[in-house]
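Predict the 3D structure for this chain.
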Amino acid sequence: MNNSRFFTFSAFATRKRKLAMAGSMQRWLLKLGVCMLSVGVPLSAYANPPASAPKASDAPKAAEAPKAAEAPKVADGKFDMSKVPAVSAPSRPGLFLLPPAGPGYFSLWDLVTGNKREKPPVAPYAPFALLTTPAYDIDFRYLATPGHEKDIFDPVKRMNLGDDWLLSLGGNFWYRYIHETDSRLNAAGTNNDFHLLRTRVHADLWYRDKVRLFAEMIDARAFGSELPPLVTDRNHADILNMFTDIKLANINNGPAYIRVGRQEMMYGSQRLISTLDWVNTRRTFQGVKTFWRTAEWDVDAFWMRPMVIEKGNVDNWDTQQNFFGLWATNKPKPGHLIDLYFLSLINDRNVSAANMLAGNILQGNADTHTLGGRLAGNFDNLLYELEGMYQFGQRSNLDVSAFAVATGVGYRLPLPMNPQGWIRYDFASGDGNSKDGRSNTFNQLFPFGHYYLGFLDRVGRQNMHDFNAQFTMHPMPWITFITQYHRFYLANNRDYLYNAAGQATLRDITGQSGSHIGDEIDFRLNLHMSRHQDVLLGYSKLWRGEFLDKQRPGTSPDLFYVQYNFRF
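Done. Predicted structure below.
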């Protein structure tokens, strides 16, 4: 059959049993999450003594992970707001970096002013232009510590409105210029030069640690493009986040909340759920989430619908997609984590007759359930990660059996400029015969594929092999250089090549075009100008393999971009 036939589990042998399971999962998933919170999450009974969260040192997230939340106390009749809000520390992504430790200059502004530091400064933002962490999880609680480093924007952060209320304001602006050669592998060989602008502003209001109101607006614009803008390029004056948090209880020294409204989501490695910061509009959902946080456990249960971007109108949620999930992260000791998760995407969109005939059936009429787990961490300078995902369910009346694996090992050399390297392998199954009653193509759900599978976005985590390596260094602590090399293959020659958005692009139904998609190299140089400013330059090049040479002969895709980012 194909490369995933050996992983078909006998437990899902009949279609009838799978349909019954799919129907019942929707009903009990949220009940399970709420029930777990209400009884104190029994998993914690087997946990080791509390350990502090591992340091968050990776480009796509906050610069320093907040400590586990403790219940604020009342002192002298006043409520202690120093630990509000209960920020969720993002997990390490794959290909994470160990940051330079100092002494040195940690921004260009430090260098200009002669401010040589003994160690990295305490800062809310990572020293990188791309930041997937949602604005509501950026940690400014250090401002409650006497003697903290002062900043011009401190007056609009953590403003006390009486003894029990806390208000913060913030925002972000970026500009990006992009030049693409043979953009999107178009047959006409058209190049594309264009500009992106994005502005985000937010307000965050807390009553003690009991109730939170968070609202964030976004305005994303594109101009100068020779090709039609992508749907993720533009969203004029809309809502990115708008939700309410209500505290349910304090369980085993950790707060439990329910969140209702529009909200970004980001979990684990972000291979399946990410805010997708590379695109101009980011990605957001609307629904309900319960979450519980302690020093050792993060547990979330949610029901969501993805938002549909409507450039000139108010965005609406997609009533034809329902996304359920239960996600638990254990932090057994500093520097190590374990993710365990179950996800269910019920997609009732119709698949056209033409797409059915062509075997392009991943975009609708499917109940896809994903079971997965992940290990990641570091032993001193040795870095490691392993993630496995298995999918089952129904897709256009076909039984789903698909899987994906991501694994890698890295090492930081004890040399000047903090050099580090990773060697990795990524795989996602494909399908070779849409008429055999089974569908074996993995569904990547809502990923940050751009970060993992090349900045040209020609390959998604569906029907692919990727043998890849990464090398990073910091010529100075405020300069980050990253290069990645990818060698891409189709997992099944008769299935499609899917892009970073999960859309089917090219296919040879005969399989005669071969499996080698091509080789890509990516370069990124990030200059951390100051606490609030970054400049990112990048170049990517894709060399055709046998498959692209036959499907798009003569194309030679490459990408150049420069981005300026300001946060406050």
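Residues 1-71 have pLDDT under 50 and may be disordered.
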